Amino acid sequence: MSKRARVAVFGVALAILPGLNAGAFATGQTATGEADQAAVIRQIDAAVEARFARVQGFTDVEHYQVYRGDDQTHPAAEMTVRDTYKKGVGKEYTVLSQSGSSVILRFGLKPLLDNEKTINLPGNVEKSWFTSANYAMTLQAGGVRKLDGRECYVLAVKPKSEAPNLIVGTMWADAKDGSLVEIQGVASKSPSAFAGTTHMMRQYANVDGFSMAMHARAESNSMLFGRSVVTIDYSDYRLELSR
């Protein structure tokens, strides 16, 4: 099997969702009190623009775990890294610890980090943002809904192009400022003929006024290796903000 195929079956289809998002913009409503879709989408776009203007960089600690088959208790491999992001430069990773299957570490987690570095290069990272430039967004009926104690608008999202890191699914955006709260769905394109449909989710929390990734999960089934699950937990954020 080629290296590319092995990368796919060990879960590197995990979407590289935006790690941060923020803003503070009022949304409009119709005369009946229902949210106006165009106004909500403008709010989300403005939040991304505000984040891009303010966040100059950040560091965090990321803990990766890979589970195989039906065993969701004992990871087959683990890796903890420090992620350093600089606006206009991209990401760098420092491995703090690793354990478990050398095959998964070499052909799964290391290529996953390399792929994130590529996607987060200037000129690439903008293509993965959840904005109307990259996604068709449809506001779901029912008004504001609560998720983890936050009032959110819920939107169906579909990328305008296909890529393994772009998601067809559902987005929850904070009704106060348009910041990303949660995203879940399936990859719009498989990274390999060896990989089946990849289901993904990522949750966010407010850090220093900005929405930062806290937990992510990707599950896929391959023709050769069956079920693989990758989880990521994020902690110890340090943000560098412009004045």
Structure, explained:
The structure is a single chain. The protein is an alpha+beta fold. It has a single domain (3-241), classed as outer membrane lipoprotein receptor (LolB), chain A (Clam), CATH 2.50.20. Helices cover 18% and strands 47% of the residues. The protein has three helices and twelve strands; from the N terminus they run αβαβββαββββββββ. The chain has helices at residues 3-9, 37-54, 102-119, and strands at 20-21, 55-68, 77-86, 90-100, 135-139, 145-147, 150-159, 167-174, 180-187, 195-207, 210-222, 226-241. Strands 1, 2, 3, 4, 5, 6, 7, 8, 9, 10, 11 and 12 form a twelve-stranded antiparallel β-sheet that branches. A hairpin with a 3-residue loop joins strand 3 and strand 4 (90-100). The longest helix has 18 residues, at 37-54. The chain is globular. The termini are far apart.
Summarize the structure.
The chain is of the alpha+beta class.
Q: How would you describe this structure in keywords?
A:
outer membrane lipoprotein receptor (LolB), chain A, 243 residues, alpha+beta, 18% helix
Walk me through the topology.
Elements: H1 3-9, E1 20-21, H2 37-54, E2 55-68, E3 77-86, E4 90-100, H3 102-119, E5 135-139, E6 145-147, E7 150-159, E8 167-174, E9 180-187, E10 195-207, E11 210-222, E12 226-241
Antiparallel strand pairs: 1-11, 2-3, 2-12, 3-4, 5-7, 6-7, 7-8, 8-9, 9-10, 10-11, 11-12
